[in-house]
Amino acid sequence: MIRIIPTEFLKKLTGVETMVKKAFTFLMLGGLGAILLKFILSFSEKTALPEVAAHYIEKGPSELGSANIVTSVVVTYRGLDTLGEVTILFAAAAVVGLLIHLNRNENAVRREGSELLKTASVLLFPLILLFGAYVFINGHLSPGGGFQGGAIIASAVVLTVLASPNRKIGHTVLSVIESLSGLFYVGLGMAGAVLAVNGFLDNRIIPLGEFGSLFSAGLIPIIYTVIGLKVGSELSSVVITLNGETVEEDD
Amino acid sequence: MIGTIAVSLGTALVLLGLWSALTNRDIIRMIVGFTIFDVGIHLIMISIGYIAGGTAPIVSSLSEVGVSYVDPVPQALVLTAIVIGLGITAFMLTYAVNMYNRKGTLEIDKFEELKW
User: Fold this and answer.
1) What is the ipTM for the molecules in this complex?
2) What is the mean predicted confidence (pLDDT) over B44-48?
3) Looking at chain A, which residue has its C-alpha nearest residue B102?
């Protein structure tokens, strides 16, 4: 093939190209910086709550029985958004699994974790699981909830995977837990639609209980437990898939 | 005061993250840049919901008066945004793994198929 344009000229051209790219980058960041600077300068802390937030804080505890207002917003007032969020997380986990599964390296051997890490992971694994469960069961009383607890549970799996990356971990149990909890979550929402006054995902189909105790706030602890199991198993399966050594138990 | 500091920090993180994502040629570094950008946006959203002198919106008893709380709605939104950001990061990393498997490199300049 005959090159019409000399190589030296092309090299110069790519030099010019990267310079133009850099100039554009700086121009864009500078513009964004100017906009954000204007935003910072005009920013003043609010002294009163917006109307919706004030309603949530005033009426939330007596209406839904949850001490943590963020939890009552996430699980009940905006429960449909959370259902969508769980769906997006499920889609992400499924796509990650699919893309890795298409071209995984069966023969890759990874360096084993050190003796220290292995021993510590065996010791810490049940403790981290317990802490994750504690965080999602107390989601309506203290900072925490299903997503946080699920992430903590997945971090236990990360530790195990780091300690022994060559171990084969089956996906079956995780996917069964994940599907069952997803189904149970939607089922609880539908039960709210049939039995409660306020429709889908209402937490008042069982008695609210005494404010501030563990068994209170109606369905909220149950829904958060289900979300915690779902998120924990989803994130764990993402981590195990990204480790690339997964083998389905049935194939 | 705290709100203004948080907004400034968030803005700095947004600019840093975008700068890192746009100027690095390594895909993993770009993903890290996007994650920093994400964190900056979360910080800005949280501080918009800050009420001067407010505490975390966790009520200790049904009949309490005179305690001011911060806005719980942005906090719930950011909780959602963190989870979605995590999903997107996992997705981007998966793409990075796939791209590495195709070409054996993570330099973005080596991927010329969609260049014009």
Assistant:
1) 0.80
2) 89
3) A103
Q: Is residue B59 part of a domain?
A: no
Tell me the shortest Cα–Cα distance from B26 to chain A, in angstroms.
15
Cβ–Cβ contact B19 with A under 8 A = yes
Nearest residue of B to residue A144, measured between CA atoms = B79
Name the residue ranges covered by the structural domains of chain A.
Answer: 1-36, 60-243
Kindly state whether A149 is in contact with chain B, defined as any CB-CB distance less than 8 angstroms: no
pLDDT tens by residue, A215-233? 777 788 888 889 889 988 8
* Total residues found in chain B within this entry: 116
Alpha helices in chain A (DSSP H): 7-41, 51-64, 69-72, 79-102, 115-137, 146-163, 172-195, 220-243
pTM of the predicted protein model: 0.80
Nearest CB partner across the interface for B51, out of A49, A60, A147 = A49
The domain containing residue B29 runs over which residues?
Answer: 2-51+70-109
Note the pLDDT tens digit of each residue in A153-171: 989 988 888 888 777 777 7
Residue at B60 is within a domain: no
Distance from C-alpha of B50 to C-alpha of B68, rounded to nearest angstrom: 11
